[in-house]
Amino acid sequence: MAEHELRPAVEVVDVGGRVVRVVDGHLLAAGDVVGHDLPHRGVEIVVDGEGYRARWVRGAFNLPAFAKVFAGGAAGGALFRLLGLPGAVLGTIIAVGLARSARPARATDVHDPAVHVEEDGPDLVLRSASLPALVLAVMELTGSSGPVTVSPAAEAPAGPEGVRLDDVGGLEDVVAQFRDVAVSFRHPDVMARWGATRPQGILLYGPPGTGKTMLAQALANEIDGDLREIRTPEILDKWVGNSEKNIQRIFTEARSLRRPTVLLFDEFDSIISYTGAAFDAAGQMINAVAGIFKQEMNTLIEANPNVIVVATTNFPDRVDASLVRSGRFDLKLAVPPPGPRARAAILGKLIRGLIARHETAAFRMFADDVDLDALAAAATGLTGADLKEALRRAQLDKAMSEARSGAAAPITQADLLAAITRLT
Fold this sequence. Notes:
The protein is an alpha/beta fold. The protein is 43% helix and 16% strand. The protein has 16 helices and 13 strands. It has a five-stranded parallel sheet with strand order 10-11-12-9-13, sandwiched between helices. β4 and β5 form a beta hairpin. α3 (73-83) packs across α4 and α10 packs parallel to α12 (281-303). The radius of gyration is 25 Å and the shape is globular.
C-alpha cells in the first residue's frame, strides 16, 4: 500500500511546555472518535460537524494516595493509639475534608478564546475548530503536562496494560457494544434517571488468540478502572471446602471495591463448568462453587455498581447455561477469527504502532513495499495473536541480522510474507 497510508503524518504543537502530537489528523472525519493517551481516562473526544468536541466526565473523584492511607490500616491504628480515636473514623474525616476542599475545574479555567466551554451537569463540554487547541485546553483543565498523542485510532500501546478500544482491530460490532458499556459506567446519573441497568456480566467466547482478554483490559481502561483477573488456581483447591471459600472471598472483595473494576474470569470453563448430578467429591465441589457463583451474580450489581464481570471461554458448550443466563451475563458476544478486512486492520494498527514507537529520521523499520491487503490475504485463518507473532518474528530476524553483520535492511513485504507463511 502507499507509504502515506502506512506511515503516520505527525504534527507536533508545543504551547508553554504542553506538547500535543496529532497523528494522521487529516484522516479524521465527522463522527469519528479521536483516540488519545490522556492520563485522565474520563475524557471523550469526537469530530462533529463544526470541528471537535470533548467531554470531560468529572463525576469521579480520586482521593490523594496519602488520604487513602489514613482511611484505616496501619496509619489509622497509629492515630487511634495517639489520639484515642478510631483510626478509620478519623481517616474518613480527613479524606472527606480533602474531597470537599478540592475545587473541580470550571469553564472559566480555560483561557484560550478559540475553545468554547460549557457545563453540562457534572461534565464539562469543550468545542473548538482546532484539535490541538481543544486538547491543550483539556490538558489545562485536567492538569496533564503531556506530551499527549491524539489520532483517528490511538497508537498501539507499549503493552496490554495501556490497550484501549481504539486499539482493537477487526471487531467493530463487539467494540461498539463495549463502548456502550463504558458510556453507561461514565454516566450513572443518566442511568439512574431512566431506571436503566447496565449489563452486570459479559461472556466472550471464541477461538484462542482472537482478543477476548485484550477486550477486557481495554474495557477496564475505558472506564478508568482496574482489571482484576481471576484464574483457576486462585479458586480451585484440593482441600475440601477451600474452593468454596475462595470464590466467596473473591466476591466479598468485589463488593467492597470503590474504583470501577472489571472482574475477569479468564478461561471460565476451566474454573466453573457443568452443574448437575455429583457422584464424587470433585463433582460436589464444582456444584458448590457454581452455586455460590450464581448467588453472587444475582445481586452483585445492586451491591456494587462499580464492578462488571467479564468471563472468557474458548469452549462455550462446556459452560452450563444456568451460569450465564440473562440477569447474570446480559451480553454474550462471539469473538470470531478475523476476516480479510479485519486482518488488514489489525496488521495496520500493529505496524503503524511499531513505526510510531521505533522509526526515526535515521532508522526505518519497514520498507515502502508493505501491502496490508496482500498480507491479509496470505494470512487466512490466522488470529490477531498470530499476526502479532508474525511481526515479532520478522523483527527478530532483522535484529539478529544486524547484530551479526552490523547492518540490516528494513522489513519488506517478502519478509512479512515469509513470517506469515511459517504460521499458516
